[in-house]
Amino acid sequence: MQRFINDAIEFLPILFQGVKLTVIVTIGSLLLSTVLGLMWALMRVSGIWLLDVSARVMVNFIRGVPIIVQLFYIYFVMPDLGVTLSALQAAIIGLGIAYSAYQAENFRAGIEAIDHGQIEAAQSIGMGWWMVMRRVVLPQAFRIVLPPYGNVMIMMLKDSSQASTITVAELALQGKLIASSTFKNTSVFTLVAIMYLCMSLPLMYLVTRLEKRAAQSRR
Protein backbone atom coordinates (compact mmCIF):
# COMPACT_ATOMS: atom_id res chain seq x y z
CA MET A 1 0.00 0.00 0.00
CA GLN A 2 2.82 2.38 0.85
CA ARG A 3 4.40 1.65 -2.52
CA PHE A 4 1.14 2.54 -4.27
CA ILE A 5 0.89 5.81 -2.33
CA ASN A 6 4.46 6.71 -3.28
CA ASP A 7 3.74 5.91 -6.93
CA ALA A 8 0.58 8.01 -6.77
CA ILE A 9 2.49 11.00 -5.41
CA GLU A 10 5.02 10.62 -8.22
CA PHE A 11 2.65 9.99 -11.13
CA LEU A 12 -0.44 12.07 -10.33
CA PRO A 13 1.01 15.42 -11.55
CA ILE A 14 1.66 13.86 -14.97
CA LEU A 15 -1.71 12.11 -15.06
CA PHE A 16 -3.50 15.37 -14.22
CA GLN A 17 -2.04 16.85 -17.41
CA GLY A 18 -3.83 14.05 -19.22
CA VAL A 19 -7.02 14.78 -17.30
CA LYS A 20 -6.94 18.34 -18.61
CA LEU A 21 -6.87 17.13 -22.22
CA THR A 22 -9.53 14.51 -21.46
CA VAL A 23 -11.87 17.23 -20.20
CA ILE A 24 -11.13 19.47 -23.21
CA VAL A 25 -11.82 16.65 -25.68
CA THR A 26 -15.01 15.64 -23.84
CA ILE A 27 -16.47 19.16 -23.62
CA GLY A 28 -15.49 20.11 -27.17
CA SER A 29 -16.88 16.95 -28.74
CA LEU A 30 -20.01 17.16 -26.57
CA LEU A 31 -20.78 20.65 -27.83
CA LEU A 32 -20.16 19.67 -31.46
CA SER A 33 -22.22 16.49 -31.19
CA THR A 34 -25.09 18.45 -29.63
CA VAL A 35 -25.21 20.98 -32.46
CA LEU A 36 -24.88 18.36 -35.20
CA GLY A 37 -27.26 15.94 -33.47
CA LEU A 38 -29.94 18.61 -33.15
CA MET A 39 -29.47 19.50 -36.81
CA TRP A 40 -29.87 15.85 -37.92
CA ALA A 41 -32.95 15.50 -35.69
CA LEU A 42 -34.62 18.65 -37.07
CA MET A 43 -33.95 17.44 -40.61
CA ARG A 44 -35.58 14.11 -39.73
CA VAL A 45 -38.78 15.71 -38.41
CA SER A 46 -38.91 18.56 -40.94
CA GLY A 47 -41.42 16.78 -43.16
CA ILE A 48 -39.22 17.54 -46.19
CA TRP A 49 -38.38 14.27 -47.93
CA LEU A 50 -34.93 15.30 -49.15
CA LEU A 51 -33.83 16.56 -45.74
CA ASP A 52 -35.22 13.47 -44.01
CA VAL A 53 -33.43 11.07 -46.35
CA SER A 54 -30.17 13.05 -46.18
CA ALA A 55 -30.21 12.96 -42.37
CA ARG A 56 -31.00 9.23 -42.34
CA VAL A 57 -28.08 8.52 -44.67
CA MET A 58 -25.66 10.61 -42.60
CA VAL A 59 -26.75 9.15 -39.26
CA ASN A 60 -26.60 5.56 -40.50
CA PHE A 61 -23.21 6.16 -42.13
CA ILE A 62 -21.77 7.69 -38.97
CA ARG A 63 -23.16 4.90 -36.77
CA GLY A 64 -21.85 2.25 -39.15
CA VAL A 65 -18.21 3.40 -39.10
CA PRO A 66 -16.16 2.73 -35.92
CA ILE A 67 -15.08 5.83 -34.02
CA ILE A 68 -11.42 4.92 -34.30
CA VAL A 69 -11.69 4.73 -38.10
CA GLN A 70 -13.33 8.16 -38.19
CA LEU A 71 -10.49 9.55 -36.07
CA PHE A 72 -7.87 7.99 -38.36
CA TYR A 73 -9.61 9.37 -41.43
CA ILE A 74 -9.81 12.91 -40.08
CA TYR A 75 -6.24 12.97 -38.75
CA PHE A 76 -4.36 10.93 -41.35
CA VAL A 77 -6.43 11.16 -44.56
CA MET A 78 -7.75 14.73 -44.51
CA PRO A 79 -4.22 16.21 -44.89
CA ASP A 80 -4.03 14.43 -48.26
CA LEU A 81 -7.15 16.42 -49.20
CA GLY A 82 -5.60 19.71 -48.09
CA VAL A 83 -7.11 19.89 -44.58
CA THR A 84 -4.55 19.58 -41.80
CA LEU A 85 -5.70 19.51 -38.19
CA SER A 86 -3.89 19.14 -34.90
CA ALA A 87 -4.41 15.89 -33.02
CA LEU A 88 -6.60 17.67 -30.46
CA GLN A 89 -8.77 19.29 -33.14
CA ALA A 90 -9.13 15.99 -34.98
CA ALA A 91 -10.13 14.23 -31.75
CA ILE A 92 -12.81 16.78 -30.93
CA ILE A 93 -14.21 16.79 -34.47
CA GLY A 94 -14.04 13.01 -34.82
CA LEU A 95 -15.75 12.24 -31.53
CA GLY A 96 -18.23 15.07 -32.06
CA ILE A 97 -19.29 13.72 -35.45
CA ALA A 98 -19.39 10.12 -34.18
CA TYR A 99 -21.65 10.94 -31.27
CA SER A 100 -23.86 13.33 -33.24
CA ALA A 101 -25.62 10.25 -34.66
CA TYR A 102 -26.59 9.08 -31.17
CA GLN A 103 -27.54 12.58 -30.11
CA ALA A 104 -29.75 12.85 -33.20
CA GLU A 105 -31.75 9.78 -32.21
CA ASN A 106 -32.18 11.10 -28.66
CA PHE A 107 -33.35 14.49 -29.88
CA ARG A 108 -35.66 12.97 -32.49
CA ALA A 109 -37.25 10.73 -29.86
CA GLY A 110 -37.75 13.73 -27.58
CA ILE A 111 -39.33 15.81 -30.34
CA GLU A 112 -41.67 13.01 -31.43
CA ALA A 113 -42.75 12.46 -27.80
CA ILE A 114 -44.43 15.88 -27.73
CA ASP A 115 -48.21 15.75 -28.11
CA HIS A 116 -49.02 16.51 -31.75
CA GLY A 117 -52.08 18.43 -30.60
CA GLN A 118 -49.81 21.15 -29.20
CA ILE A 119 -48.15 21.51 -32.59
CA GLU A 120 -51.49 21.76 -34.37
CA ALA A 121 -52.72 24.34 -31.84
CA ALA A 122 -49.58 26.46 -32.34
CA GLN A 123 -49.93 26.25 -36.11
CA SER A 124 -53.59 27.21 -35.89
CA ILE A 125 -52.65 30.57 -34.38
CA GLY A 126 -50.27 31.33 -37.22
CA MET A 127 -46.92 30.00 -35.98
CA GLY A 128 -44.54 28.75 -38.66
CA TRP A 129 -42.68 25.45 -38.41
CA TRP A 130 -39.49 26.94 -36.96
CA MET A 131 -41.35 29.06 -34.41
CA VAL A 132 -43.35 26.01 -33.31
CA MET A 133 -40.12 24.11 -32.82
CA ARG A 134 -38.39 26.94 -30.99
CA ARG A 135 -41.22 27.99 -28.69
CA VAL A 136 -43.32 24.87 -28.20
CA VAL A 137 -41.53 21.64 -29.07
CA LEU A 138 -37.83 22.04 -28.28
CA PRO A 139 -38.19 23.41 -24.71
CA GLN A 140 -40.27 20.36 -23.78
CA ALA A 141 -38.13 17.95 -25.80
CA PHE A 142 -34.94 19.11 -24.05
CA ARG A 143 -36.42 18.16 -20.67
CA ILE A 144 -37.29 14.71 -22.01
CA VAL A 145 -33.82 14.04 -23.46
CA LEU A 146 -31.83 15.26 -20.44
CA PRO A 147 -31.37 11.77 -18.88
CA PRO A 148 -30.12 10.10 -22.11
CA TYR A 149 -28.05 13.23 -22.78
CA GLY A 150 -26.34 12.67 -19.44
CA ASN A 151 -25.60 9.07 -20.42
CA VAL A 152 -24.01 10.34 -23.64
CA MET A 153 -21.75 12.61 -21.58
CA ILE A 154 -20.52 9.62 -19.57
CA MET A 155 -19.91 7.59 -22.73
CA MET A 156 -18.02 10.46 -24.34
CA LEU A 157 -15.84 10.91 -21.26
CA LYS A 158 -14.79 7.26 -21.45
CA ASP A 159 -14.47 7.20 -25.24
CA SER A 160 -12.22 10.26 -25.12
CA SER A 161 -9.51 7.67 -24.45
CA GLN A 162 -9.71 6.78 -28.15
CA ALA A 163 -8.09 10.14 -28.87
CA SER A 164 -4.85 8.49 -27.71
CA THR A 165 -4.81 6.56 -31.00
CA ILE A 166 -4.00 9.81 -32.82
CA THR A 167 -1.40 10.92 -30.26
CA VAL A 168 -3.55 13.14 -28.04
CA ALA A 169 -1.81 12.83 -24.67
CA GLU A 170 -5.01 12.50 -22.63
CA LEU A 171 -5.31 10.43 -19.45
CA ALA A 172 -5.17 6.96 -21.05
CA LEU A 173 -2.11 7.74 -23.16
CA GLN A 174 -0.32 9.43 -20.27
CA GLY A 175 -0.90 6.32 -18.21
CA LYS A 176 0.40 4.09 -20.99
CA LEU A 177 3.52 6.22 -21.40
CA ILE A 178 4.27 6.17 -17.68
CA ALA A 179 3.67 2.42 -17.45
CA SER A 180 5.92 1.69 -20.42
CA SER A 181 8.78 3.74 -18.96
CA THR A 182 8.49 2.60 -15.32
CA PHE A 183 6.98 -0.91 -15.72
CA LYS A 184 4.68 -0.14 -12.80
CA ASN A 185 1.58 -1.26 -14.65
CA THR A 186 -0.51 -2.07 -11.57
CA SER A 187 -0.02 1.28 -9.88
CA VAL A 188 -0.37 3.36 -13.04
CA PHE A 189 -3.50 1.78 -14.47
CA THR A 190 -5.13 1.58 -11.05
CA LEU A 191 -4.63 5.34 -10.78
CA VAL A 192 -5.99 5.84 -14.31
CA ALA A 193 -9.08 3.78 -13.50
CA ILE A 194 -9.67 5.69 -10.26
CA MET A 195 -9.34 9.04 -12.04
CA TYR A 196 -11.82 8.04 -14.75
CA LEU A 197 -14.17 6.84 -12.02
CA CYS A 198 -13.83 10.12 -10.11
CA MET A 199 -14.80 12.02 -13.26
CA SER A 200 -17.66 9.67 -14.12
CA LEU A 201 -19.33 9.39 -10.70
CA PRO A 202 -20.58 13.02 -10.56
CA LEU A 203 -22.05 12.58 -14.04
CA MET A 204 -23.70 9.31 -13.00
CA TYR A 205 -25.21 11.06 -9.98
CA LEU A 206 -26.45 13.88 -12.23
CA VAL A 207 -28.05 11.40 -14.62
CA THR A 208 -29.83 9.66 -11.73
CA ARG A 209 -31.20 12.97 -10.49
CA LEU A 210 -32.37 13.92 -13.97
CA GLU A 211 -34.09 10.56 -14.43
CA LYS A 212 -35.92 10.95 -11.11
CA ARG A 213 -36.97 14.49 -11.98
CA ALA A 214 -38.18 13.39 -15.42
CA ALA A 215 -40.19 10.55 -13.84
CA GLN A 216 -41.80 12.96 -11.38
CA SER A 217 -42.75 15.43 -14.11
CA ARG A 218 -44.61 12.71 -16.01
CA ARG A 219 -46.88 11.95 -13.04
If you had to describe this structure to a student in words, what would you say it looks like?
- It is a single chain.
- Helix 1 crosses helix 4, helix 1 runs antiparallel to helix 6 (129-159) and helix 1 (2-44) packs across helix 8 (185-218).
- This protein has eight helices and no strands.
- It starts with a helix and ends with a helix.
- The protein has 219 residues and is mainly alpha-helical.
- 29% of the residues are buried.
Q: Sheet with the most strands?
A: none
Helix segment tally: 8
- Secondary-structure-derived class: mainly alpha
Counting DSSP E segments of at least 2 residues, the number of strands comes to: 0
Question: What labels would you give this structure?
Answer:
mainly alpha; 219 residues; 8 helices
Give a quick precis of the structure.
With 219 residues, the chain is mostly helical. The chain has helices at residues 2-44, 49-64, 67-77, 87-112, 116-124, 129-159, 171-182, 185-218.
